[in-house]
Design brief:
Blueprint: E1 2-12, E2 17-26, E3 29-33, E4 42-47, E5 52-55, E6 57-62, H1 74-84, E7 87-92, H2 103-116, E8 120-126, H3 139-145, E9 149-151, H4 160-173, E10 176-179, H5 184-187, E11 192-193, H6 196-201, E12 205-206, H7 209-225, E13 228-231, H8 237-249, E14 253-258, H9 259-263, H10 285-297, E15 302-304, H11 312-315, H12 332-342, H13 347-352, H14 356-362, E16 377-387, E17 406-416, E18 419-423
Parallel strand pairs: 1-4, 1-5, 6-7, 7-8, 8-9, 9-10, 10-13, 11-12, 13-14, 14-15
Antiparallel strand pairs: 1-2, 2-3, 5-16, 16-17, 17-18
Helix pairs in contact: 2-3, 4-7, 7-8
Length: 428
């Protein structure tokens, strides 16, 4: 079957190329741009005049609630939220119940996700058994079961010897580790950035050195082990400077940042707004500005949603008691578009941080619009505006720092493997 996507504005962030042209899809891949493949007849046509066609978004960090949340149908709700946000591929964090530390659990998650026919799910395996920080999992077996990398998520890894052995093990198999840079003891008990806002509000603080001490340890162990490491959700200016220095030294070190930290700083906590309770905490304005700069100079390779749906029972509490996290799958695209507009960042460069950038990190063929590439596509209206309200979110989690705000850019269609996985209600 040949599908024609007609009259769309094609934008390929990988090359920066932009044109109004027809797009032909066949067998789950892009078969032609501008002209139909020779000898093929179009079976169905989707006229998308006025819409921008980009590669499907690739999200490096999302919590899906399974295993452990089956009774709430969380996997289906979160993957529906993903395709509604134009996300066609996402990495599932391993801090489930139980943790993703056995091949059978990984295979079960993949089978359930594949059966829903929504976004593609790439599991991240637990770095240690039960994420308890003591005994390494079997990386090779978990990789064979479908894990693309290994992470502790937000679980502490206080034993440096375990981290060192994990790096040696990963280097042996050519595996990249995903590490959250936070010293558990320096961060213990903290809920906000160590700055004037935390002092004024009387909130226990997490200093920037909780991140930089962890990065320093990781870098030193990388030099000795030869490991490849990706740092998750970096949040401080000093941490970014250390990453840039390590990369200049030649270490195989990459990093991502949460979209929340691209836009927000600790001053946005306001009067104890628990929607702003995130992990890592919102840092200072200088940190936020450094993050935006690092996205442009390549120090940060990707922006993730850090999707962590939290229910009312855990969020509608005093700031210090509220569970950290926010829903982000449906907001990733409009927030990246807003950053590009506000800071006058070239659109292709901004979108690369949620398409071709993470695709390169994961070694995927997707993340680009080119003949032969997977037909994972996001079609959005760049002029449509909408207001973020809890009832408009498909995710099971209705809490976000951006609730009540007006967004520009609305996903109309999402295709995964050339098949329509989402069409906005009422869209032609």
């Amino acid at each position: 079957m040949i599908t024609l996507i007609q009259n769309g504005r094609l934008l390929d962030p990988a090359s920066g190329h932009e044109t109004v042209a027809d797009l032909y899809l066949a067998d789950g891949r892009i078969a032609g741009i501008g002209e139909a493949p020779a000898g093929h007849v179009v079976d169905q046509t989707l006229d998308v005049a006025g819409l921008t066609v980009i590669p499907g978004l690739i999200d490096l960090a999302a919590r899906l609630g399974e295993p452990g949340g089956e009774h709430k149908n969380k996997l289906q709700s979160e993957l529906r939220a993903a395709v509604a946000g134009g996300v066609t591929t996402l990495c599932a964090m391993p801090d489930t119940h139980p943790a993703l530390d056995e091949p059978g659990l990984v295979q079960m998650l993949r089978q359930r996700a594949d059966g829903l026919g929504l976004a593609k799910v790439l599991p991240l395996g637990a770095l240690t058994r039960g994420l308890d920080g003591t005994e390494l999992t079997e990386f090779a077996k978990l990789r064979d079961a479908g894990c693309v990398s290994f992470s502790q998520a937000d679980a502490p890894l206080a034993d440096t010897r375990v981290l060192y052995r994990a790096m040696q093990y990963a280097a042996t198999y050519g595996i990249t580790l995903r590490l959250r840079p936070q010293d558990v003891r320096l961060a213990s008990g903290g809920v906000a950035h160590d700055g004037q806002v935390a002092t004024r509000l009387g909130l226990p603080a997490i200093p920037s050195v909780a991140e930089t001490v962890a990065i320093s340890t990781i870098v030193i162990l990388m030099k000795d082990s030869g490991a490849s490491v990706h740092l998750e959700r970096v949040s401080t200016r000093e941490g970014l400077e250390m990453i840039a220095a390590a990369r200049n030294y030649g270490l195989k070190l990459t990093a991502d940042v949460s979209i929340n930290h691209v836009h927000l700083a600790d001053i946005d906590i306001g009067y104890f707004d628990s929607n702003m309770r995130l992990s890592p905490p919102l840092r200072g304005v200088t940190d936020r500005d450094a993050i935006q700069h690092a996205l442009l100079d390549g120090t940060i390779s990707a922006i993730c949603s850090d999707h962590s749906p939290v229910g009312n029972d855990d969020k509608l509490l005093p700031f210090g008691e509220a569970k950290p996290g926010a829903s982000g799958l449906e907001l990733l695209l409009p927030l990246v578009l807003a950053w590009a507009e506000q800071k006058r960042v070239p659109l292709a460069q901004a979108l690369a941080r949620i398409t071709s950038g993470p695709a390169e990190l994961l070694g995927l063929e997707s993340g680009r619009i080119a003949v032969g590439a997977p037909a994972d596509l996001c079609l959005y209206d760049p002029h449509a505006t909408w207001r973020v309200m809890p009832e408009t979110l498909l995710s099971s989690g209705k809490h976000t720092p951006f609730v009540g705000m007006e967004m520009r850019g609305r996903v109309r269609h999402t295709l995964v493997g050339g098949r329509l996985a989402y069409t906005e209600p009422g869209a032609a």
